[in-house]
Amino acid sequence: MIPEKPKGLQATPDQWKAIATRGNNLLVSASAGSGKTKVLVERILMHIQEGIDINELLVVTFTELAAKEMKERLRSKLEEAIEKSTDEVLQQRFSKQLQLIPSAMISTIHSFCMKVIRRYFYLAGIDPVFTMMDEIEGQLLQEKVWRALEEELLEQPEYEEVFATFSNDRSDDGITNTVYHLYQYSRSKREPKTWLSNLTQNYAVGTDYASTPFVKTYVKPALIEELSYLVTQYDQLLKEIELLGAPKHQAVLEDDLDFVKAVLVHIQEESYVFAYQTFEDRKFKNWSTAKVDETVKESLDEIKAIREGLKKDFQKIKEDYFVISPEVQLQQMTKVNRILSKLSDIAVMFYDRFQDEKHQLNKLDFSDLEHDTLRILTKLDQNGLKIASEYYQNHFKEVMVDEYQDVNRVQEAILELVSKPVNRFMVGDVKQSIYGFRLADPSLFREKYEAYAEGKSGERIVLAENFRSRDEVLSFTNKVFQQIMNKELGQVEYDDVAALKTGNLSYSQDDDKSSEIILIEDVDLDESTDDLEDAEGFEKVENEIHYVAQRIQEMIHTPFEVMNDNADAKRPVNYGDFAILSSTKSNNDKIESIFAAYGIPVNVQKAQSYFKRTEITTMVSLLKVIDNPLQDIPLVAVLRSGLVGLDEIALAHIRTTSKNTSYYEAVCQFISDFKLKDVDYYDSKQQLALKERLEGFLTLLNKWRDSANNESIAQLIWEIYMDTHYLEYVHGQSNGTQRAVNLHALYEHAHQYESSSFKGVRNFIRFIEALQKKEKDLDEAPIATDSNAVQVMTIHASKGLEFPVVFLIDTNRKFNMQDLKASIMCSDEIGVGTNYFDLNTRITYPTVQAVATRNFEKKKLLSEEMRKLYVAMTRAREKLIIVGTLKNYESFKKKYAFLTNESSEILPYQARFKSSTFLNWMLLSAIREQYKITPEIVAKADIVSNSKHYIHEISDKEVFQEDWHEYYNEANSPGELKSRVQRILKTIQQDYQFDVESKTTSYQSVSELKRVLEDPIIEELSQNSLIEEGRRAIYLSPTLEQPRFMETSSTTVSGAQRGSALHLLMQKVDFTSTITIDSLEQLLRSLVESNEITPEVAAKVPVTQAFEFFQSTFGQWIVQNSHALVREQAFSYVLEASKFFKTIQTDDLMMIHGIIDGYVELDDEIIVFDYKTDFVVDSIEGIQSIVRKYKDQLNIYADALSISCNKKVTKKVLCLLSINKNIDIDTLKAI
């Protein structure tokens, strides 16, 4: 019986049921935004109130960060409960729980496993002082073990066939990667060695092909499904062509259909030999060339294109299943069985040796933590009891698992062994399982989801109400996934139970919040390529990025409104409200550069991998040369880099010395046999300089090679930095800070590497090469991010986050199917599949096991991609915009026209399975009109045209740096000495031509210029003669200003300090809430608390002046237009110095810099304003005087803004706070 919900607790009936249900295993299927974390926390708190201590609960989270956040939430809730409670006993209980939180079992599964092993190490024969092995050391150790085993196996003839099958003449990477893959996959199994020992089970053959178990179980159903789908598509084409009245073309399609049906009948009757013979005997007829009416020609061309696609699908069936006869396939299965048997032996040997090596070193990796914990929990003592398992079962009153959909089979076994029959609480959402690459197994969740629904072993609770998003986002998501996701593809039925339901009713009814599919039509797009990084694809994404940038600027300036954080009022959207999601980081650099052109701040993760950075590739090349200088490519890379600085001519010149040796030997010979040559590209001086440069490099190289034998790799790297000044060199390049940080990171990574059991340059290089080969990478050093900037991230990184407006881009990017090209495929459902390689003919033949395994894994991969799409779409709170590029939408609709009459809500499996992009799924869901999903078509030309409206030239002036000149150095002969000295004396004694210019600077602040303009003495001097030495204005002073830390404190507050504080207050005002005296005083207190203003200064700030300003007509206008308001805008502005200083006669340029208090940028004009706290006499003369004082300052602001924004500044307003008047300086009228 569930108790009544407490009055103060805000929870839906289903949430309360999940919090309060006891006495059974519970699976909570929590859809996106349904408040699962809240449910977990409230359930823990309720357990505490029921008398269970927090350390009697096991709470397993997916990440350490999630565990930390869970503890913080509990701490906050307990402190809140202590304050509210009037029950002294309950207060003491809550206080005790606060003390127990640090030791509470709220952690990742690996942290829990570590505690189990530390406690019961003796049950698994583990040294209690074991250390954890990181991925770096694990990969190196794995390679060391494999190379030793490989050498032994190559000497044994019985393994020759295996090595020949999985490797080639050039490399043994094939067999190496296969063994690594099998080992890695086996570690997700409860009994890894047992699984490795049974690799051959799929290749058992029957008396004939039809009776072979694998053919009956997997091949026949797959063939029937694929052929039936083809029949459906041909039927639709025949219906269309019949309406066109083209009998000869129709006859061709009818013959195609007969061909497909003939094969289908043979498969249904298990006559595989006849099916093979049909493929061999029949061919598709050519498309009819009969003349037809022009009105139907275009439609016939489209039907022909669709037919070509169907023919390819049919041909693919032949290539997969009938490229050779069934009899020969049986023979090949027998041979593959034999090869896999030997591969199984190798995999088991490697498994044993790798585990032994780790044991010898007393090291464990993360998978060892799981398997050793499993061994401990299943270990029986002398009385036949599982002592560790029973201890935890008795200790934990409940075992709670967050993100249960990401658990694997080994972790599930551990959780079962520490749980009682009915004390498990599991929370997750199988629709958000996107960590298959970490061997997560969402089928575990699905099995319980289905079983618990029927009351078997537990109870299922579904939290379908989404409290994050608007109904527009949720209903759109439902419309899509009800058509594309089911158990077959997606691994969960997206039925009425799983569908999202609107839980947040506080959103207002707005017409501009509907979700959108934006289709950019690009007639030049090549949709046939399978290359993920093709050039057309890159341009395609550029168009999408431009569209998104334009749309964001449009929404900022309209403005588009979203709910505030309290959900009680609307506010204009800002840049920080937008997120751009993509399945990859490869577009990030392009987004950053295009958004910069649009003036949009953006936070991105750098797409370029760490080891591909120029500064890092250069250092890695140098390390390779230090290890072995006879490597030509790394050596030339170093010589060409900034470390040595040779160009192509120098490299070619060196090679002319010795054309048939290694390049290192050519360099050595060039130096030892150096002779000046008569060549037209180098003079003698340049040749000598080249020799000196090479000698210097070789000297350093020999020094570094000695150091490599005596020092750590980290010390060597630092020595290189010091000897070459490489850190300083990269600092001077573009993005120099990041480059220097990357080099520092390389030094730190080397430190980390050498803390393992491996040493030396060669092993470090091998490690880096292994990472690059496996497309793994070290993290680039993080950079600070701007909170008010568009967030750009991958879908994986966005999981668990939410944003008011989400753009999903690059949706027509093909899914990454590289894993399906592996030489051996592993599937939980099927087992292992591999092709047959004929060693005599060197031809690879597909086996039906490989085809089926690949299709099962493709289904799993597509299911995960579908769930990624679900995660992406459910990140949006208020607006979801999906952007994709297509060649022609009408052609797409005609290709899939056969789906329009599909009666089932879920689209046919083959249509979904053959989709290779997010966009394809989205458009399939839009095919049927009753779902009312209508993509908006945008022409590529319109995007290009619109870009000109947003992207402006920033400056119309360029500053050129004068060329450096090399002066002729005269000979120091005695006869010339006297005349040279006379010339030097004459030069020293002459008047300096640019004496006027030398007394000022070319970089001036507006405040310094203002002092010239407001001081009549300085103004007069600036026009006639330079100011006397020692007088401070915009001229150079012989003394330096006193640093702030040397200033003596003063108890009096100056007018300047008071004015600065009032300025700061005005800049910090929040326009999204009502401005009152109280809110301004609260803001002032917060500025004091954050040490931005001292209490003494705060006491003198005239808050009423600020309040009265915002009550004024102009102040109210600023508040109303705050969406277009820019405050505290720094600027730099170049002009000719002679325009300001009349005594300067040269054409020198001067840069003025300053900070504009604020301006409002409207569609076709700008209004700039400046706050002034000066005392002003409230009269015509007083106002004229203050305007004269600041007029030129505002004119400078206006000039700078009109150039940078390419808009006219129509008003320049002085905000005189002391008299609460806002004066247009051009008209002298108050506004």
Per-chain topology:
Layout (H helix, E strand, L loop, with lengths): L12 H8 L5 E5 L5 H14 L7 E5 L2 H21 L3 H13 L4 E4 H12 L10 E2 L2 H20 L5 H7 L6 H14 L5 H6 L15 H32 L2 H22 L3 H10 L12 H28 L4 H36 L1 E2 L1 H13 L8 H9 L2 E4 L7 H9 L6 E5 L14 H11 L5 E5 L1 E2 L4 H14 L16 E2 L13 E6 L13 H23 L3 E3 L6 E3 L5 E5 L5 H11 L3 E2 L10 H14 L4 H9 L7 H8 L7 H10 L11 H27 L2 H12 L1 H6 L4 H19 L6 H13 L16 E5 H4 L4 E6 L15 E4 L3 E4 L1 E3 L4 E3 L2 H26 L2 E11 L2 H7 L13 H5 L4 H9 L9 E4 H11 L23 H16 L5 H4 L4 E3 H9 L1 H9 L30 H14 L8 H13 L5 H6 L2 H9 L1 H8 L4 E12 L12 E13 L3 E8 L7 H26 L2 E9 L4 E4 L4 E2 L1
Parallel strand pairs: 1-7, 1-8, 2-3, 2-6, 4-5, 6-7, 9-10, 11-22, 11-23, 14-16, 14-17, 15-16, 17-22, 24-26, 27-28
Antiparallel strand pairs: 12-13, 18-19, 20-21, 25-26, 26-27, 28-29, 29-30
Task: Provide structural commentary.
- By secondary structure, the protein is of the alpha/beta class.
- It contains 46 helices and 30 strands.
- The strands form eight sheets. It has a seven-stranded parallel beta sheet with strand order 15-16-14-17-22-11-23.
- Helix 11 (247-268) runs antiparallel to helix 12 (272-281) and helix 26 runs antiparallel to helix 27 (713-724).
Silhouette = globular
What kind of sheet is the major sheet? Answer: 7 strands, parallel
Name the strands of the widest sheet in spatial order.
Answer: 15-16-14-17-22-11-23
Approximate strand percentage: 5-15%
Number of strands: 30
Number of helices: 46
Radius of gyration (CA) equals 38 Å
Report helical residue fraction. 40-55%
Structural class: alpha/beta
**First-residue to last-residue Cα separation:** 70 Å
Mean pLDDT: 87
Q: Which residues sit in consecutive blocks of at least 5 with pLDDT less than 50?
A: 530-538, 775-784, 953-975, 1013-1039
